[in-house]
Amino acid sequence: MRITHLGHAAVLAETDGARILIDPGNFSDAWHSLTDLDAVLVTHQHPDHIDPGNLPGLLVANESAMVLVEPSILDLISAGDLPSLGENAAALPPDEQVAVGDVLVTAVGGRHAIIHHDIPRIGNVGYVLRSEGQPSLFHPGDALDTVPEGIDILAVPGYGPWAAMKETIDFVRDVGALEGFPIHDELLSDRGRALVFNRLNEMTDTRLINLHGGTTHEF
Q1: Measuring CA to CA, how many Å separate 39 from each of 104, 134, 216?
Q2: How many alpha carbons fall within 13 Å on the CB side of residue 74?
Q3: Which residues neighbour 162 within 8 Å (Cβ) at sequence distance 6 or greater?
Q4: Cα torsion for 129, 15, 205, 156, to the nearest 10°?
Q5: Average pLDDT rounded to a whole number, residues 145-161
Q6: Which candidate, 55, 56, 21, places its Cα nearest to that of 41?
Q7: Residue 195 pLDDT grade (very low, low, confident, very high; cuts 50, 70, 90)
Q8: Is 25 buried (19+), middle (13-18) or exposed (0-12) by CB count in 10 A?
Q9: CB contact at 8 A, 92 and 44
Q10: Most buried residue, 66, 78, 184, 218, by CB count within 10 Å?
């Protein structure tokens, strides 16, 4: 599986039979010109995970791509709070699966992590990507409370206003992936990225790989 971190939560996962983009949000523009996508996955409605200004243009350039989203996003589209994502858009609730080329996509979780008790919680689904003969990938979105089994590669949220370092360390330990890479890092300085990267490598058995800056790595 070839993985490219396209900034913040945006991740491109490629196998021999699929090109899948996860969380094209407004903290990144490296995904704007992608073509030949088979699917676009969105974990939740926050704009750093779904960019309402630029995602429609991406979908025009990838008119055959499936668009799979956390269910409440379709409600926002119906209410006019988000632009249409086209006829290929569909909800993928927790514990449901869809095949995209040679990849089986499973939605897990269901709720966004708590930011503050005064802020209402919204939906969030993580995505597990599995393909025969390939390592499995888990992108959790904005939650650390779901631990799927048999994960080989973990996209690790580096920082969010909903998580502390101690929670991230325990999450990485619980998932137990062999390898991983930091995401959700655009609120960090370079020093902050280094601190998170080094601490997770020191305190977990997951080997983190730095993909910051649009690096592609074959796992």
Answers
A1: 12, 18, 18
A2: 14
A3: 112, 113, 114, 115, 142
A4: -60
A5: 97
A6: 21
A7: very high
A8: buried
A9: no
A10: 184
Phi then psi for residue 198, to 5 deg, are: -70, -40
Which residues share a beta bridge with 3? Answer: 13, 217
Rounded Cα gap, residues 100 and 102, in angstroms: 6
Report the sign of the C-alpha dihedral through residues 210, 144, 115, 52, in that order: positive
Q: Residue 5 in 3-state DSSP?
A: strand
Give the residue carrying structure tokens 């983009």. Answer: 21
Cα angle: 100, vertex 105, 110; to 5 degrees: 140
Which run of H or of E encompasses 165? helix 165-175
d(C-alpha 26, C-alpha 77), whole Å: 18
User: Angle, to 10 degrees, between the axis of helix 190-203 and the axis of helix 165-175?
Assistant: 50
Q: Report pLDDT for 186.
A: 97
- φ/ψ bin of 23: left (φ > 0), alpha (ψ from -120 to 50), beta (otherwise): left
Reported as type and span, the H/E element at residue 153 is strand 153-157
Neighbours of 133 (CB within 10 A): 8
DSSP codes of every residue in 58-117: HHHHTTT-EEEE-THHHHHHHTTSS----TTEEE--TT-EEEETTEEEEEEEEEPPPS-T
Tens digits of per-residue pLDDT, 168-192? 999 999 999 999 999 999 999 999 9
181 within 8 A of 12, measured Cβ to Cβ: no
